Amino acid sequence: MVNRKREEPKKGEVEVVNAKDLLPKDGQGSSSPYVIVDFDGQKKRTSTKFRDLNPEWSELLEFTVSDPENMDYEELEIEVYNDKKYGNGTGKKNHFLGRVKLYGSQFSKRGEEGLIYLPLEKRSVFSWVRGEIGLRISYYDDLLVVGDEHQHPPPPPQEQKAGAPPPPQPPEIFKSPAVMMVEEGYPHDMMMNYGSAHFHPPPEILNSPPPVVVIEEPVMMHMHVEPPPEAEPPPQSQQQQHHGPPPQQQQQHHGQPPQMSQHYHPPQPQEVQFMADTKKMQMGRNGGDRVRVLKRPLPNGSDQYSPKVINTNGDKNKLFNGSGEHIRGAPERVHPYDLVEPMQYLFIRIVKASKLGPNESPYVKIRNSNHSARSKPANYRPGEPTDSPEWNQVFALGHNRPESSTNGTLEISVWDSPSEQFLGGVCFDLSDVPVRDSPDSPLAPQWYRLETGADQQAQPGVSGHIQLAVWIGTQADEAFAEAWCSDAPHVSHTRSKVYQSPKLWYLRVTVLEVQDLHIAPNLPPLTAPEIRVKAQLGFQSVRTRRGSMNNHSASVQWNEDLIFVAGEPLEDSLIVVVEDRTTKEPILLGHIMVPVSNIEQRTDERHVASKWFGLEGGQGGGPGGGPYCGRINLRLCLEGGYHVLDEAAHVSSDFRPTAKQLWKPAIGILELGILGARGLLPMKSRAGGKGSTDAYCVAKYGKKWVRTRTITDSFDPRWNEQYTWQVYDPCTVLTVGVFDNWRMFTDSGGDKPDYRIGKVRIRVSTLESNKVYTNSYPLLVLLRTGLKKMGEIELAVRFACPSLLPDTCSVYGQPLLPRMHYIRPLGVAQQEALRGAATKMVALWLARSEPPLGPEVVRYMLDADSHNWSMRKSKANWFRIVGVVAWAVGLAKWLHEIRRWRNPITTVLVHMLYLVLVWFPDLIVPTGFLYVVLIGVWYYRFRPKIPAGMDIRLSQAESVDPDELDEEFDTIPSSKPPEIIRMRYDRLRMLAARVQTVLGDFATQGERVQALVSWRDPRATKLFIGVCFIITLILYAVPPKMVSVALGFYYLRHPMFRDPLPPASLNFFRRLPSLSDRLI
Length: 1080
Hints:
Elements lengths: L2 E5 L2 E11 L12 E7 L2 E4 L10 E10 L9 E8 L12 E9 L4 E2 L6 E4 L12 E10 L2 E5 L31 E2 L21 H5 L5 E2 L93 E2 L10 E2 L21 E12 L7 E6 L4 E3 L15 E9 L10 E8 L4 E9 L16 E4 L15 E10 L9 E2 L5 H4 L2 E4 L3 E12 L15 E7 L2 E4 L4 E3 L4 E13 L5 E8 L6 E9 L5 E2 L8 E4 L16 E9 L28 E11 L5 E2 L5 E2 L2 E7 L2 E4 L10 E10 L5 E8 L5 H4 L5 E9 L8 E12 L2 E15 L5 H5 L9 H4 L4 H20 L7 H7 L9 H14 L1 H14 L4 H16 L4 H16 L22 H7 L9 H33 L7 H20 L2 H12 L12 H7 L10
Parallel strand pairs: 8-10, 12-13, 15-16, 19-24, 33-35
Antiparallel strand pairs: 1-11, 2-5, 2-10, 3-4, 3-6, 6-7, 9-10, 14-44, 16-19, 16-23, 17-18, 17-20, 20-21, 22-23, 25-40, 26-30, 26-35, 27-28, 27-31, 29-30, 31-32, 34-35, 36-41, 36-45, 37-38, 39-40, 39-42, 42-43, 44-45
Helix pairs in contact: 6-7, 10-15
């Protein structure tokens, strides 16, 4: 027998292409470089290039990855040396020419890698290096099939001795918990199961701190406690799967099944086998920290618009039902999601039925004391038997277990939808339903006989069996994400989902030249044709300026860059049109279409060759084989070295470039627990005029969007969902918004946009490392009628990262944006236009998901209208400037008090300090820095205790004028009557006049400084030059310390020796001429 084993070792490839501008270190004005690549304990070397400062290698080095799961954390070190063998014989060692250090997370999949040039770095402070090295870095999975021809087959089961013990299992080796990360958008199966009843980890594993694990998958929550990846899974007990009715006799091994109620006649006595990983609730278990949330919002007062700390002391391990109410009498349990409250649900998985009575389209009805649900009808294919329908649905009912719930029952019945005929049912006692805790394995469904009720003894057509599973769990259960929830019955638009923004690129189109155009000959004399090029990509359209004609070659030249935003999967085509706009009606001279997927990608500033494209569809030609219309020279490339901004720069959540090979490793993990909301206002009216709110929450950080489930008809919804993100830059912002769901009523009310309730921004850099912040933030919305508080949202946030490790601290010294933004910067107006296009593309992408994120949600989360004109924002920015310079104003006031001798003791101390600094000038700089240190230590007492939310006082939203608000919400172009527009225009003119006056005053002071030596006022210039000459003689003759003491004491002299009028120097300066008298 041949035993075949599949192995998939991962291989890493590093192609050393070339290097540029290396430093000569062989003593003869050159170098003979070679490269050493070190990865995963393997070192490989390239060949030596003799005396070449710009060597070309193009050598491929291959490495075997020993641990593919931890490949992202392996260092790739590339060092360049000068080979001493090719020098002048004086070198004793190979001279260091530079190095580059990367990580395994920057490897690209084979076929997707690009040529990247990295600057060579120093090895130490005294290293002298320069130049850059070109690399291609990739990985691939190598599939191997290993066979063993000499392996004997195992003995058949009947030949084994009865009662023989199972073969011994190798001992499990536990290692310290590791930190594992999985990239966004690339799901991996990294969950390991502890779900065996026979497995008991040693105490040191149970008591050790849990590893930090991030699984960036499109699931609702993420696990935080997992066994080490090196540990072998425990032996699993074999489970028997039944595809038909179960046998009448079956031995019970692991527990009793849920008992039938007396209202149904049970089938023949039988014992049903459950999974080994189900267990009852254990009393007195100790858990970790949990969050107890206030039941009612705090009373309104002066701080009703400020964030509040939620009390987390005591009652940390309580269980809550699906409605967010505490379950009295329930024992404390350990919950793996430590930022949210565990909510208890009753799960029912309906799989299929067998040997049903005659039916057309059966469905399952579920009912308990608090909830009822109904499955979808089973549809049969033509010719398929109607006695074995399949549903494969999971229901999650909010479970409440009071102290006296000993007779609670769960009824599951099967009905035929056209005739509403009863086909049978089963009933369970809720006190016997098992409890499943993660990371237990899923509960195995069992077969139950369908019985008729006690009051339906004569009911015909009741027969068959139904396969189902019933258990009690929390929102941590993997079945919860796709289950029908009792608090969110509209399944299609109420489930929690994770979305990924599309991968966006900047497309650079450089229009160089057009030749051989068919221009109309009937132009007026001395009139040059106005030739322009218009490029269009999707909804984006950009036109060049007027081209310059070249009479010698009959060509039109531009050399102008047009930039677009392109989103993967790059299915659009770039359309370039050449137009003659000499007359009122533009004349088409030709066009081309270039698929974006065929355009070259680059990650740096390397040169991209231009191409000539033949024009089609001009005046004399057509598509295909028409006459020749001319040709156009374009340089096209997709820029992967830029970060495509889709958010405002000051509230951006990501600054990584588009090309993944340029990403730096993550520095930490951001965890968000969305607990719930309190005191939401009614957003819609139901039947009878009753107000209701169907709220859901959206959080956005980086490329990852998360959406909680919608809690229907609740003013105090409890979500209790936890999500995680990888943090690459701490100077980023997490945005959380709350919305009222209208799209779940699309069948009846049309496609009405979701209404915004409010949002909160949390800057990651303001969070202390590894600290949990549990706060309540007000939800504020600015309407045309003024500021309105819509309720409060309760969040728990933790930023898990090493606090002061070099990788974390070095981020603060790196550029905020990628390198290409500084080498080839984009204009401010151009960036704003591209941001609008990127926002629209993200909105279109997320609107195609299910459930969709509407454009109004995306625009509100991305602050798409942040740069619109607003008088309120202008006032807010002015007061921000005043707040920034307030310290200088305070210092000036303090000096004024010192000069006035209001406090003589303080003034005398300042005199003494001034004498010390003048006599020992070396102490000035250290004293200044010491003063800054003392200020920082003093303000540590007043540091923010919680992350700040929206500030209505800073936003000038407390007492905003209604007309200014109406102007802020006005459209462009305006939709208001002419008299209102005239009034607003006059108000803007008055404001502009004040700004004009201030700018004129600034210009006047600068021109007076210039007039000191410009001889515009000869007498003033003579006086100034004479005074400067006298000061020069004095400074040459008198020691500088004496001059400094004299000037300082003169400035601080007592008021009795001071004239109340302005000093002569200020009067002289104010009399200097400016250019304001030349203005018309």
